[in-house]
Amino acid sequence: MQEFDVVIIGGGPGGLAAAYGLHARGMNVAVVEKDLWGGTCPNRGCDPKKILMAAVEAQGRSEALQGHGFTSVPQLDWPALMATKRAYTAKIPSGTQGGLQSAGIANFHGTASFNADGTLTVGETQLTATNWIIATGQEPHLPAIKGQEWLRTSNDFLDLDNLPADITLMGVGFVGVELAAIASAAGSRVHLVHHSDRPLRAFDGDLVTDLLARLTAEGVDVKLSTDITEVTPADDQYRVTTATGESWTSDLVFATAGRTPVTADLRLNRIDVVTSRHGIKVNGQLQTTNHHVFAIGDVVDRPQPKLTPVAGFEGQYLADTLATGDAAAIVYPAIPSVVYGKTQLAQVGVTTAEAATAPDKYHVTDLDLTHWYSYQRIQDPAARIKVVVNQISGNIVGATILSSEAEQVINYLDFVIQNHMTTADINRMITAYPTLASDLTYFN
Question: Which of 31, 95, 12, 104 is nearest to 314 (CA)?
């Protein structure tokens, strides 16, 4: 039996942030990982996806500037793009584990499960600890339809040797929209299908509609209020059938509707940890119903977006909490979210839906940015922002933006919101001009 102060189950960004933070404070720590060291983000998620997206974004910029300085659109070379992605991801697992070993942090590779006495089994090894941190994240969800076994996931998409001529994506969330943008830019015919008429519910509905219109203009076949009920082999393709009887064939069909918390192997019922279908239940200190067990990252049932920076923030919080005994509840800053593509959709702070429930407190300004200089010079075809302002203070407290520059603008606004900057504060800044930052003074 090997003993530790803290054992962390999950070697992704959240678990690693906690591990290094606790180790730096002199605690005896171990990390357990059953899959790829480094977790989903650098291996099968945000990092490799953004490598592929770099070429997509460059193509989108050149398309917008046809007749304004460019006369041809570059074509994506899928094998070369995938080789670039693999050159990055191939180093992640060994580099991550090597970092733990160099730091002197114990690490174990294998499936972990709790025992009734509160210890942990990892393969043939038995571990015990004063406290435990669960940071196992989520995995792709496969819908319960006929032909489920023929479905692929985002993991498969991000490792395709060759991109098929025709694909179907089931689910218009972050993953579905982003994979649609990549595949369409690379020349694939894409069917993007969603069961309801209101996808991406966390974002402003008007801007979601604008985003889907842009995808349609890029050639994506967007099908809303469409339930796929069956996928069956059809020669060397797959036939997709909907609840209304509509059908078509695709080379591959990907499930892109949601993810599932990774908890099944842990046997959490043996240690009295309560879960829901959304993940592990925690209190304000990220403590589960077992006071010696904590949970962070995407495996947690909480309202905050399930994003890599949030997991890292929670890992740092627990490192401080467990090392010092501080019982203060976690306080989240404003959290920006971005849906990437040629046209990006980004949001931070108070949403327009939240603002609509308190009209005496918030005012929403809807601005068409298309003819602002920053967007006109790059011929951005769909630039729009909704800014939420606190009517008492006059401060910007939230925003949703649709633009090829949205990821940059939302981070500027995140800084403004986090630091409670007033209009006067913004006007006292001298920013480089003409840039996106120099537009901040006009948003409220």
Answer: 12
**313-347, pLDDT tens digit by residue?**
999 999 999 999 888 999 999 999 999 999 999 99
| Cβ contacts of 40 within 8 Å, gap of 6 or more | 12, 137, 138, 139, 298
For residues 110 and 108, what is the distance between their CA atoms, to the nearest angstrom?
A: 6
The secondary structure element, H or E, covering residue 375 is helix 373-376
Q: How many CB atoms lie within 10 A of CB 234?
A: 12
Say how far apart CA 137 and CA 359 lie, in whole Å. 37
CA distances from 325 to 78, 300, 321 (A): 51, 22, 5
**CA quadruple 133, 139, 143, 147: dihedral positive or negative?**
negative
Q: Which two tokens stand for residue 181?
A: 């943008």
Q: What is the pLDDT of residues 397-420, one digit of tens each?
A: 999 999 999 999 999 999 999 999
Helix, coil or strand: residue 262: coil
In the beta sheet, which residues pair with residue 6? 29, 131
Is the separation of the CB atoms in 186 and 85 below 8 Å? no
Q: Does residue 1 surpass a pLDDT of 90?
A: no
**Cβ neighbours of 126 (radius 10 Å):** 13
Count of H-run helices and E-run strands, the chain: 13, 23
Q: What is the CA radius of gyration of the chain?
A: 23
Question: Residues 10, 136: contact at Cβ < 8 Å?
Answer: yes
